[in-house]
Amino acid sequence: MDRNKNVLAKWFRNFSKNEGEGSSPLYAYLANRIAADDDLLALCMHAKPGQPVPNLLFAAVHYLLKSDSNHSLRDYYASLVPTPEDTKDSFASFKEFVFNITWKYEGF
Hints:
Layout: H1 5-20, H2 25-35, H3 38-44, H4 53-67, H5 91-104
Helix pairs in contact: 1-2
């Protein structure tokens, strides 16, 4: 399957609509923002073929946040804090966290 930025953007938009809406406002919002972000889409192109890229990215970030209690992104996750911050303010923290962890974890 041809996987380029346009295909990945479509996957993230579909994830937002089909997986995020109604169950996770944070993931719905982030998936739409990722779909329009060339830097994050370029990073996601490194995922192995056949991987569900949005699920992989969100699961990896959530897993790593559980062990990084000092990062501000944690404050947007209802599963990690009692009262999460407004989803609409989460994207900058999300992007910064993702690019910081790529330096820590080779092959992310």
